[in-house]
Amino acid sequence: NAGVTQTPKFRVLKTGQSMTLLCAQDMNHEYMYWYRQDPGMGLRLIHYSVGEGTTAKGEVPDGYNVSRLKKQNFLLGLESAAPSQTSVYFCASSWAANQPQHFGDGTRLSIL
Amino acid sequence: ILNVEQSPQSLHVQEGDSTNFTCSFPSSNFYALHWYRWETAKSPEALFVMTLNGDEKKKGRISATLNTKEGYSYLYIKGSQPEDSATYLCALRSNSGYALNFGKGTSLLVTP
Asked: What would the mean pLDDT of A32-53 be, rounded to a whole number?
């Protein structure tokens, strides 16, 4: 049972580089979310999607872009990475807004 | 951004003890409350989604109650076991959007 799969699991970037984090779910969920986890803080929502082709900003969207071209995939992009974006990124999905969210294993991203 | 407070921040109990912790939130914005369990090196796992005032949910030795009028939820663990050691997160969905606002969690350590 794959559930929610995040790629890659670890990455080190230099300031100014770009990269894309991939989230894939095989549960046919409509809703998908990207969070970041920083020490001493709760999970904070970056962007989310309520269906294929839709995206919306969360609490901390600056410096990130997202796309949901296919229902099963939700991509998080960093166009010009900054050290402040060093974090652990979690993707999640849910069948509906009031249903439990299923989380991936996280991507640990370090920006030097 | 809604302020979701969890207390205590951390808790250390002996095997067999029963314990409980609190999630507080602004009652005027309530739509749903989620509880998640997050073990070290794993991803958050959904425990409960609660929507109605007075809701009580149970899963094995873990149960939760909800008071939307006063803005709090309790999570109870009966007869704690070492495998219950984890961080327990609550998250509020407000009536103005789809996003979940997470608290910082209560870290529980159960020692034999």
From this structure: 93
